[in-house]
Amino acid sequence: MTRLITHLRHVDLAVPDFAEQRDFYAGVWGLEEVATDTGLSFLAAVGSPEQYVVRIREAAEKRLDLVAFGAETPADVDALAARMRAADVRIVREPGTLDTPGGGYGFRFFDLDGRTIEISADVAVRAHRKLEEKESVPVRLSHVVLNSPDLAATRAWYERHLDFALSDTLSSPYMGDVMHFMRCNPQHHSLAIAKGPHASLHHLSFELRGVDEYMRGSGRIIRSGAKKVWGPGRHLAGDNTFTYFLDPHGNTVEYTTELERLDEDTWHPSVYDFSQPEVTDQWGTANPMNELVAKESFNDVDRGVFVAPPV
């Protein structure tokens, strides 16, 4: 399948306590600050060629600033922008040169729920390295999960406008569909849409080198005093490990590894009943999924809906 979107680049967060958030991600979480500006911090993953995977901005209110995806060429960026205009999607920054680390060419628009999305190409590759055994810091940004009050409509929007494909669905006899796992490449999901009471960030996930590094990293975060929400365990959909924590501003962040890669020509989506404990955790090692665990990932109402970030 030919897609104009290639991969997830970075997710940008705004918070009132900039210093605390910066210290968490550049410290215990294991990212590396690669650039700063007034009230801005750009954080990279050691093993990733992306210039940065998280941007933190100082702001009066907590919000999700934007989610950025990559495209192969500037021509693909222009083609996507033309597609958005034809569909009356609101563009908030026309295609042009980017002034963020690595430069490139991109544009921004609002998705169905009012989140700012950026698409870019020709961003310079950052010098990076292969992580060694026992290095328990993120290799790269794995995926992002977004809460939506209209799960089906948001899934359809991403399928129609950005060519995302459905990999699997979580459902239950009591709640119906609760999460759609969406892919833009053979990785099981770079994006997932979760059923929530409002538009917000559900969680950010970071890939570690392997299971041993994932466990060492999870233990390091637990010992730091950060609140653990759920895990360690292993999901059925995507077959990836998970441990979820809260960052200092209440955003859920995940350590994971071994997320499944699919043969897209033969893959058929499944619907998994997440009320079955082996679906949420194959290992049976995590604390049980319950309403309190789920509520943490609802997050606060996003104050950035249909308001483009200033930078």
TrEMBL record:
GO terms for biological process: L-methylmalonyl-CoA metabolic process. This is Catechol 2,3-dioxygenase-like lactoylglutathione lyase family enzyme. PROSITE patterns: VOC. Pfam families: Glyoxalase. It comes from the Bacteria. GO terms for molecular function: dioxygenase activity; lyase activity; metal ion binding; methylmalonyl-CoA epimerase activity. Residues 7-122, 140-258 form the VOC domain. Signal peptide: none annotated. Keywords: Dioxygenase, Lyase, Metal-binding, Oxidoreductase. Gene3D superfamilies: 2,3-Dihydroxybiphenyl 1,2-Dioxygenase, domain 1. It comes from Actinocorallia herbida.
